[in-house]
Structure formats: structure tokens, C-alpha cells
Amino acid sequence: MRSNYLLVGAAFFVVIFSSWSSKDRQINQSLKVLNKVDVKVPDSSRYTRIVLAEGLDEPMEMAILPNLNVLFVERKGALKLYNSKTKVVKTIANMNVFSGIEDGLLGLALDPKFSENHWVYLYFAVAGEVSKSRLARYQLIGDKLINKSEQIVLEIPTQRKYCCHSAGYLAFDAKGILYLSTGDNTNAEETEGYTPVDERPGRGLADDQATSANTNDLRGKILRIIPKNGGGYIIPDGNLFPKDGSKGLPEIYTMGSRNPYRFSIDQKNGYVYWGDVGPDTKIQSEDGEYMSFDEVNQAKKPGFFGWPYFLGNNQAMPLYNYATKQPGEKKDPAKPFNNSPNNTGEKGLPPAQSAMIWYGKMSSKHFPLLGSGGATAAAGPVYYSDLFPNAPYKLSEYYNAKLFIYDWIRGWIMAITFDENGNYKQMEPFLKHIKFSAPVDMQFSKDGAIYMLEYGTNWFSKNTDAKLVRIEYQEGNRKPIAEITVDKQYGAAPFLVNLTGRKSVDFDKDDKLDFSWKIEGKTIKGPEIKYNFKKLGIYNVELIVSDDKGAVGTAVSKIHVGNTPPEVVINSTANNSFYWDRELLDYQVIVKDKEDKKIDQNRVKVSFGYLPSGKDVAVILAGNQDPGAYKYLKGSGMVANLDCKACHSMDKTSVGPTYKSISMRYAGQKDIEKTLAKKVIEGGSGNWGERAMSAHPAISFDDAQEMVNYILSLSKKSGKLPLKNSIPLKEHVGKGKKGSYLLNASYRDKGANGIEPLDGNAYLSLRSPYVEAEDFDKGNVRVITITTAFMAYVVGIADQSYIKFNAIDLTGIKQLKYNVQAIGSGGNIELRLDNANGPLLSKLTVPAADPNGKVDWKELTVAINTTKGKHDLYFVFTALTDQKNDLFNLDWIYFSNK
User: Fold this and answer.
1) CATH class of 485-561
2) Is 693 among the annotated ligand-binding positions?
3) Tell me: the pLDDT tens digits for 741-779?
4) Per residue in 31-52, is it b (16+ CB within 10 Å) or e — as a string?
5) Which CATH architecture group holds 770-896?
6) What is the Cα–Cα distance from 499 to 528, expressed in whole angstroms?
7) Are strands 424-430 and 413-418 parallel, antiparallel or unpaired?
8) So where are the chain's domains?
9) Are 272 and 180 in contact (CB under 8 A)?
């Protein structure tokens, strides 16, 4: 959104302009010096990512203490402390908060003189009948929050009838002034594709002109105050309105924001940057896409940033008339007026300021690096190298004076470069080799490291992938990257575990590494160790990897003693690698569990399905897909990888309904697939409460239908298969040489000895007996693809070359058929067991090429010796004559049981 001044009189403007123009001149000179630095982008191997804590419950904001302990808040009210020495997270307080809609314990900041006074500032929605949010401070002594020390700084009246937008971030500038962001706190669920400007009687809670665009309201703003000793605050110089409140509330620094969720303050020039989370609209922008813009804004001075009248680069939204259902006038960004009957402040507003960066659901014409899909823009810190003197992990000079922005849903971080006037110049990806799971806060510590809070996959949930992460950059000698590999993490006591650090990496190849382990207070040396855990419990295992120059990398893993994973086995007398049409697959599922003495057969799930592409097996297994989804892999893949997961999950309520509840609601409705596919593309609201569903205009209608078909399949009963059965293999009949069948069995135990329930599973994947030669697992031949003929095959076959296929079951296989093309002197194909010199099972001679130049493909058959079980198969090629190269080409191999 945008910024500038209220029209308050010539004298006021003269003061503001003169003070800022002088400041700008100083900043410009420093930026000119900074922009002369010519440093290359550091390579990604110089960053080490360390996960400090996982499984957090809606982390919001953090503060890094002088001793590098990390204090952070969780939305439902917990104040937690990560101890950098013990590497343990401890809950030090539980605030009594209202955590409905998007409220809760939202903001946290340390007093600039924390080392002396121990004040910690918290912003939260106060529990109880009165709807209000409070900014208060408390003393933190050691790891104890002193509740009796509370001093209330500021309280803001709110409404709790409708969702959404609480913001609530806190930060101090270099002068010790405290900033607080507040959301518009307006009904965002009944906008009908426009902005919430509902002026009908009794609809004031759905009118953003009553909050964001209201000079007499503290919501939809960034506030700027100086806390006082004993509580309360004073107004600093330089806010948007006079201190006497004659033109608007004097706490306001910027106004006209929807949800300024994350902001930062440039510690040198005082500029404020924030991400404003955008709406879902059906109004087209000047570029033809919907004006559903998220924004990154820059305030060089106080001002009005446009919402709800303007978005992006000051593009005006029509003032929608909710009574007549007709779009109305568009405001003039140079002279906007707030004439709403719900406005309690000034009608004349400052000129609207354009966003610095704006982007919608589709790829942005102006900022293409930002991608497409859902969005939640956030502004991180501006980095200055000289603010981290002698810091061991300070970033490269390349990033000096750059701003870091990030996106919660898209998971990227961008580095923003400014020109000599402090205006946006360009952006580039930062840490693009790291996948973040909903980054929600980003800060630098005094040692130069980057700390990141990751909210995790599901909204309003405790997430296993919600993390506190530390990222270290190192020039010169790099830290080793420690990695622990464990043969098993769960088991009964006593529990013998094999641990290895062999996968640890040091990008300085000549460094010599030393390995040590810390377990139960003991230190054990060596890259590989065995350790016997004798008592029940959950244990931390720490690996310390040191190089010979003193750099140290660490990794931590947990060992759970008290519950053994279930053992699931599928037995079958049929071939366990291939299927043949219309034959039977017999199977028996056997489950054993050490703690569950008696297996509840109803907890054993057996599923079976046909997959059109054999390579889809990996997708099914990796995603633990429901068998009913076997037919809808494309749709399930899109649902899993697009921004859908930000609002929906399978069976855990998030910001939107679960997929299973959607499936159950619409099951059996006529033509519902087309209706829902259209909704996926266009967005909408009203069917699950009034919360808006994001539009996805870049998705084709066919792809949207694939997604819908998958979701609808979730309520279809696939039929519970028995633990012992015979299944006719008939779905593949008439469908060519591809496709596979998957038999999957799983069991979740009941948990034991304080350890959570564990899953055991087994699967049997049957592939087509037509095996493409180019799909080999290992070999020393080449593959050529003929696009016009839609085929690929193996070439470059020379004497003693080979191709290998891993773990192929030869039970019942009686002969092989090869599709070959004679191009040279011919040769032999020897099938050998388990290695290139292993037992010979068959030998086929491929004749020399036709002397008349005819190079047709031929199918040649050879019998093989009877063999049972799975083996690695080596197809070894040998020459017949002195010609050793280009003997023949090989397309496919057919395994026959006849």
C-alpha cells in the first residue's frame, strides 16, 4: 500500500519536509559509498542451517537475548525460552489470552536496555468479556517472567465478532522508540470480491473506513510510541499527526494497512518496511490479473498507505455499494476522502503512497521472481555489515544495506537492493537452496547468525514442521555440516542403536574431521558408535564434528525408548515383481508388535489399486496416500504442492475446511466436479462460513477438475480388504505395456511407555513384465530418445558393457524376450545373477546386421534356468567377433511366465 501526510497546514509540512530532506541527503551519501562495493554472491555451501527446536505450537515472534538464548511467543499464550547451552526449550510463562479468530499472544520485543532493566514487551488479546488488545511490559529475571511486574503501556479496543487481521508485531528503532503494527480488525469474510467498505446501517464491523482509513482509530496502522517508566507512553516527534490529537490520533505513524503482519525498521535511516497481506478480489488490475495484491511497503516518513481504497501502485478499487450490489466511484489517490458514516475521524486523508513491491496470485509482470499462488508478504531486517563488528557469522559484504523480505506461503526469501536515493532497484533470491515451512519471523543475532521461526504447514495447529532455526554464514574456513544417521529411532528397552556421522560434510575438502557424541552426559569419540539405551524415555543424541582448524558443526537427534515399531509383512506365492493380465495375486498380511501383544485386526489397513504409471508408486508411498486416491494421483499431487496446504489439511481443521469434510458435503451431487473446479480457479466465499477462498487463475480447468476429483474421492469407501485374499489382475487389460499394481498394508500401534503410536507398513509393487532397457538402475551404456517415434532405447553396447536391474523376483519366470536392433557384428546377451560375473541364467545371441543395410527391430526369445526369489540382474553384453563396439541396440525385455 502507500504513504504520506494528512493535509494539516503549511507550517506542519515545512517542518516535516525540511527535516526529512536533510536526513535524506545524509542517507544518499552513505548509500553511494555502499553501492560502490563490488563483491560476488557467496555460494550456498557457506551457509549452515541448524534446527534448534521443532514441533512448536503456532510460533509468532522471537527475541534473541544477549547470551544467545532465544525467547519466543506462541499464539495460544505460551512464552518459551530456548537455552543455547542446553539446547532445550522451556515454557516460562502461559499468558491468559483470548486466542479466537487470529488473536492471541502475538508480539514480543526486548527493551533496548534489557541487559540493565530486564524489561520484555508483550502484545496480546486480553482474555475476558471486554474485547481489547494490550501492550504491556514485564521483567524477565533469568528464565522467570515476573507477572507482578506488569506495566500496561497501551490498550486498543477491538471487536471479536468477525475475523480477521490482528498483526501485532513489535520492534524498537535505533533511538529506542517502540513500533507496533495493528491489523484492520474488520470482517474480511463478506466482501463479495471487493474491499470491506460496507456502509449499510448496522454493518460498521464490515467497513474498513472505520478502522484502517480512520484517523481516529488505532487499527490498520503502525504505531510509534516511547514507553514510560511505570506504564503508559509519550508521543515522539515525527508521527503522522500533531501531538495534541487535533488532526488524528498522535500514536499513528502509518495508516491505511489491511494486515501489516511483519515489519522492520532500518537501524540507520529509520525507514519502516512491512508486508501487508492482501485481499482476494475479483477486480482486474491494469495488467489484467485480479487486484489481490500483497504488498511490501516502504515508509521514509509517516503517511497514508491506501487501504481500502488503493492497492499496488496506487490502483484504485471501486467503492462497492453493498446495498445495490453495484461498484461505485474510485477515489483519487492524490486527494482521498473518507465519507463513510462509520468514520469517526478526519474526512480528508493524506495523499496515498504506492507500494514498493506488489504481487498477486499470478506471476507478476513487474516482479516475476516472486512466483505465483497464495501469498503472505513479510518484511525482514535490513542488513548492515558494520553493525556486526567481529561477528563470526556476519553475512558477506555483498548484502550490505540490503533488505530481506519473505513470504509465509511461498517460502522464499528475497534480498532487495536500493539505489542511491533509497528507492527500490532490484531483488534476488536469498538462501534459495533452503526450503522453509511458513517463515513467520526473521532476525539477526549479535554474532551475525540468522534466526528464523517457521510456523509450519497447518494454520491454528501445533505442527511437527514448526521450527526455530539458526543459519550461520562463514567466510574462510567453513564449519563442517554434521549429520546423524540412525539405524532405528524407536525400540524397547534395552535398545541398542547404531549411530554414524559418516554423512557429515565439510566443503573444505582438505580438512581433517574429528567426531564426538554426547549421550546421557557421556562423551564418546568416533565417526560410528553403538550405544545401548537401558531405560525408558526420550533421549537427545548430539554429534559434534570438528575440523583441524577449529570450526565445529553440531547435529541433534532423538531416540525414543519404550515403543517398538510394528512389523508388517506381506507374503505371496506369486511373483513379487511382475504381473500378467488376468492372473491371480494371492497374499497374506502378518502383523507383529512387541508392545501390542494382541493385534487388533481392525487397525490393520490393506489397500490395493492399479496405477496408470508405474513411477506413481513412489508418489503413493511417499505421501501415504489413501487407496481411494490411486486413480487421482495428478490431482493429489497438485493439492499437496500448491498453496492449498496453507488453508486445508486432510482431517485437521485449519483456516479452511478439511478435504474429507469437503468430500462428504458434496458427495454424489450432480455436476459438482465442474462447479468446484470453477471455484478453485475463481475463488469465493459463503459455503463454509464467510472466509474467502483464494483464487487460482493460473490453474487450467482440467487441472482444477483433477484436484476436485481427488478430493471427492476421499469420502468414497474403497472397501476394507481382508488380511488374506486372492485378487484377479484385470484392470490393466488392454492398456499397453505400462502401469502397475500396488498392494499396501499398514498398522498403527497403540503407543507404549509414553511414546506415541507408531506406524508399520509393507507393500508389494507389481510392474509390467515389459521392462524398458533404458530404465536400468546401473550400467555403462548410453540411452537415446527418438522423439518422433516416442521411444527410447539403449545404444553404445560394447563388449563387456552391461545394464543392471535391482531386486527382481525371478519366481516363475521361464523365458525372456528381447526387442533388439542389429546394427553391427552382433553379440551375446548374458543374464547373470547378483554381479557381472555371477551365475549364468541364460545366453542369447543377437545376429549381425543385415548386409543389405536393413535395420529392423526383432523380437528374440530365450529360456532361462529356474530361479526363485529376488536378485540383482546383470545383462552383460559380449562380442562375437573382433568388432567390440556398437554391437546392437536394445529396446525392452519381456519377462514371461509361460
Assistant:
1) mainly beta
2) yes
3) 889 899 999 999 999 899 898 999 899 999 999 989 999
4) beebeeeeeeebeeebbbbbeb
5) Sandwich (2.60)
6) 6
7) antiparallel
8) 10-468, 485-561, 567-767, 770-896
9) no
